[in-house]
Amino acid sequence: MQDTSHFRAWAEVDTDAMIHNLNIVRRVMPNHSRMAIVKAEAYGHGLEGVVKALDNEDIRFFGVATVSEATRIQAAGCHTCPFILGPCFPAEREVIVQNGWRAALCGLEEALHYNSLGKLYNKKVNLHINVDTGMGRAGFLPHDMPGLGDKLRQFEWLNIEGVYSHLSAASQDISFTHKQIRAYEAAVRELTISLDLPYRHLCSSAAVFNYKAPGTNMVRLGRIMYGYSPMPSPYNKELRNTLTLYSRVTLLRELPDNHGVSYDHTYITHGPTKVATIGIGFGDGYLHYLSNTGARVYLNGEYCPILGRITMDQIMVDVSHMEGVQPGDVAEIMGPHVPWSELTDRAKTIPSNIITSISSRVPRVYKP
Ligand SMILES: *Cc1c(COP(=O)(O)O)cnc(C)c1O
């Protein structure tokens, strides 16, 4: 593994744990193929490092949000095809067609444009119909379904390869989720009158272990692959942590009684206090919202509370209860001892927000 001895802060990424997590889903749903979602730097794990590790893991597509992410996957030498989940501007469609990437189809104008690009490049364009069954973000609406398959069949350069939708509240609203599943299945029935649709996908992490969607044959895996399940399930305890954020003690100091710590003195010492300064802050993605929430780091086998506000590059923690802390000692900021779920609750946000916030200043180190 890369030498980390000169890093102030780094994220250790365990791609074997990711593969382990994928394999749980593979075991539970042996008849579904998998799309691995790697948008937003593979949820903060680093795009290139992750896609190279997953390229031979029987994954059908790499799900991304943008054409630039797809370009990076191709440049990394991967043979797994990128799938662009988000809407693409007209000027971005050419490179999708030229490279044979997969994209969402959200309207008939798009179909017309893709068809003409297919003709221009003499290449069939592989698209998946996006149906908005309730997310309210993108796609055709269920009332567009009647006759849509026949219309799309007219475009000779399009290969309508799949149909998908996205659940908006799978971990919160079971009855609405069942409605979405039924709406999706009705759309599939309607479209398969005139189209083949070999790929049918609806469920992502919040749904894979908790809902049956019999009309589907592929799942899209983001959070679960990264070790976080949004829903209680018997499989959750098998999931492994995939990212541990570390930082080092940079200074060790003794502050007197009644001394303010950090901006605006939201913390004041009561009694002489041993304070360790640690080289990570909100500039590295350790959210400022975690200030004064009881957030803590794990250092030399003990938890140490953060004192006062998180600054851009540094935090101060109380080590009065510890002996022998030295500059250079490594603190776990986030990981097996400080799970995302803990930080999520403290910062009043969602886990994906915590990990996608880890900034580009933080080197990603891949476990061998
Ligand atoms: C981001 C995204 C996913 C992945 O969601 P997870 O809950 O992280 O598994 C799946 N599908 C679509 C369309 C997405 O945008």
Low-confidence runs: none
Shape: elongated
Which compounds are bound in this model? pyridoxal-5'-phosphate
How much of the sequence lies in strands comes to 15-25%
- What share of the residues lie within helices? 25-40%
Return Rg in Å: 24 Å
How can the largest sheet be summarized? 8 strands, mixed
Q: Tally of extended strands? A: 18
Based on secondary structure, the structural category is alpha/beta
How far the N terminus sits from the C terminus, by CA atoms, comes to 6 Å
Instruction: Provide mean pLDDT, rounded.
Output: 97
Reading the helices and strands in chain order gives EHEHHEHEHEHEHEHEHEEEEEEEEEHHE
The DSSP helix count reads 11
Question: Brief overview, please?
Answer:
With 368 residues, this protein is α/β, with parallel strands linked by helices. The protein is 27% helix and 23% strand.
Question: What does this protein structure show overall?
Answer:
The protein is built from 11 helices and 18 strands. The longest helix has 18 residues. The chain starts with 8 loop residues before the first strand and ends with a strand. The structure holds pyridoxal-5'-phosphate. Pyridoxal-5'-phosphate (PLP) binds next to α9 and β9. The site of pyridoxal-5'-phosphate has 11 residues, from α9 and β9.
Give me some keywords for this one:
368 residues, alpha/beta, 8-stranded mixed beta sheet, 8-stranded parallel beta sheet, 23% strand, binds pyridoxal-5'-phosphate
